[in-house]
Design brief:
75% of the residues lie in helices and 2% in strands. It is mostly helical and 523 residues long. The protein has a two-stranded antiparallel ribbon. The protein is globular and about 70 Å long.
Length: 523
């Protein structure tokens, strides 16, 4: 066995284990030198990212990876942990790895003047381990454990600026919501385990009967994960957490939020896919309506914000609505008529594609907001102006983010939103019109920001403002480059990573058959 084959075989475990090991070593490395610590953390995340890409390249070629901690004989009824990685898991892991790598590069200068950085980087690596664990595990209880690790690390990072009361308040709101969600998830797991004596997602998916207790468990799981994903009306924590955390933390929180959104899809499509008629029009319409409400409330709240980061946070809520609109439209079209199957797949591709586009676009805007704060120590748009004269590169990155999140070509947001517009039009033209109007309103929101913060005469108090350090510009440049590449070559992205992820959700039986070879269910 070659070294590459060895890494590929053990990559599901290494992707979680390496950040976890790094988290425990970081305080010790900090004793040597701060620069050495920063290089060490970046190296840990870089190695993890390489492993994610290696695993994803194999998974996208049609393989599903299982990794068993314990007895390798799956027929022996022992307690074990099983990681199972299909194309959807790998797709989400790619998003998480990109955001983490950009974050630690950005943090080098952005957070450098603060104390307690050994704790900061330890928490970042713990969050990375928890987030990847949520995406790769094939076990419900371990999903809960990794969710708790992610929540605790996220809470501490949100409150990192403890001298700011609003940051501590935001962290308190987050941990309350997270604790409530964790309680729901743990109780639902207990209901499933009590009935089927199993915790593995594939095993549960093959035997679940959709009993009364199963329905209760489903409601609790969806409510908890939707709460963590920031779906309206359970989004109340998101603007505070995103808005008060350091920008380098906010971009990782986006990945953690998307991991919870992944949990929603895994529960609906894989865990309950064999018992719920997911092609039921009613299920699809519920998701569509949730998407519309989330989209409209997010945009409406963004319009009235004067704080730079809270405005972006509400825009992030709206973008989650686009994702749900695409997924819901796909399910509804599948149910209405078989002739719409191709259009339904297009809708789901748009929704899944928008997950990575949303992460990149919103992430870039938060990094720009962080750069503005780093240079000016200001977050209120009413107190900004003329920054384009002093921060030319940051201004360019903001324009790229503005065009991308508004769905303007040739940026990546246009590609995914176009798929959503086309498919929703087939379901109901009004849905497409509402989605387009929401994008136009987002454009108006960020044009207002561009005018308030970057245009106009330079304010006297900003005369000494200069461009942010190169590491911050480099981090923003990485995301901006990916945004442009995805926008210029959307077919390449859709064919190679999006469509495999969509097929993995639809053909949930493949996921189950990897553990239960005799399973015959299907979408």
């Amino acid at each position: 066995m070659s070294f590459i084959d060895f890494l590929l075989q053990h990559s599901p475990a290494l992707i979680v284990a390496i950040p976890l090991l790094g988290a425990f070593l970081t305080p010790l490395i900090s004793k040597i030198n701060n620069r050495v610590r920063n290089v060490f953390v970046i190296l840990i995340i870089l190695i993890t990212t390489i492993l994610v890409m290696l695993l994803a390249s194999d998974v996208f070629s049609g393989n599903i990876h299982t990794y068993v901690f314990g007895s390798q004989d799956l027929t022996v009824p022992l307690v074990r942990i099983l990681f199972e990685v299909d194309a959807m898991s790998a797709f989400m892991a790619i998003i998480g790895s990109i955001l983490l790598l950009v974050s630690v590069i950005y943090s080098w200068s952005f957070i450098d003047e603060n104390s307690g950085l050994d704790k900061y980087y330890t928490l970042v690596l713990l969050l990375a381990a928890g987030m990847f664990g949520m995406m790769l595990t094939g076990d419900m209880f371990n999903f809960f454990v990794f969710l708790e690790i992610t929540s605790i690390a996220s809470c501490a990072l949100i409150a990192f600026w403890t001298n700011k009361g609003k940051a501590v308040e935001a962290a308190f709101k987050y941990i309350v919501i997270s604790s409530l969600a964790a309680l729901f998830i743990l109780f639902s797991i207990a209901l499933l385990y009590g009935q089927y004596n199993a915790l593995n997602i594939a095993v549960l998916g093959s035997v679940i009967q959709f009993s009364y207790l199963d329905k209760i468990a489903l409601v609790l799981l969806i409510a908890a994960l939707a709460m963590k994903a920031g779906i309206v009306p359970m989004h109340m924590w998101l603007p505070d957490a995103y808005g008060r955390a350091p920008a380098s933390v906010t971009i990782i929180l986006i990945g953690a939020t998307q991991a919870s959104l992944y949990g929603v899809f895994r529960v609906c499509f894989t865990l309950y896919g064999n018992t719920i008629n997911l092609s039921s029009a009613s299920i699809g319409w519920i998701i569509v309506l949730l998407g519309l409400i989330t989209m409209l409330i997010g945009v409406a709240m963004a319009l009235i914000q004067s704080d730079f980061k809270r405005l972006i946070a509400f825009s992030a809520v709206a973008e989650i609505g686009f994702i749900f609109l695409g997924i819901g439209t796909g399910l509804t079209l599948f149910a209405n008529n078989q002739m719409f199957g191709l259009i339904g797949t297009t809708a789901m591709s748009g929704g899944i594609f928008h997950i990575i586009n949303d992460s990149l676009d919103v992430g870039l805007l938060f990094l720009v907001a962080g750069a503005v704060y780093y240079a000016t120590k200001e977050t209120s748009l009413d107190k900004m102006g003329g920054l384009a004269r002093h921060m030319k590169y940051t201004t360019i990155f903001f324009i790229i983010g503005l065009l991308a999140i508004s769905g303007i070509p040739p940026m990546n947001g246009f590609a995914s939103k176009l798929l959503i517009y086309e498919s929703t039009f087939q379901l109901n033209p009004i849905l497409s019109i509402v989605a387009i109007l929401s994008s136009i309103m987002l454009l108006a929101v960020f044009v207002k920001v561009f005018h308030s913060a970057f245009l106009g005469p330079a304010l006297p108090k900003f005369n000494g403002v200069k461009e942010v350090p190169k590491t911050m510009l480099f981090a923003m440049g990485i995301i901006a480059s990916i945004i442009i590449i995805f926008g210029l070559f959307p077919d390449l992205v859709i064919n190679n990573i999006v469509d495999p992820a969509v097929n993995a959700l639809i053909n949930y039986s493949d996921y189950i058959r990897e553990v239960i070879p005799t399973f015959t269910g299907g979408f």
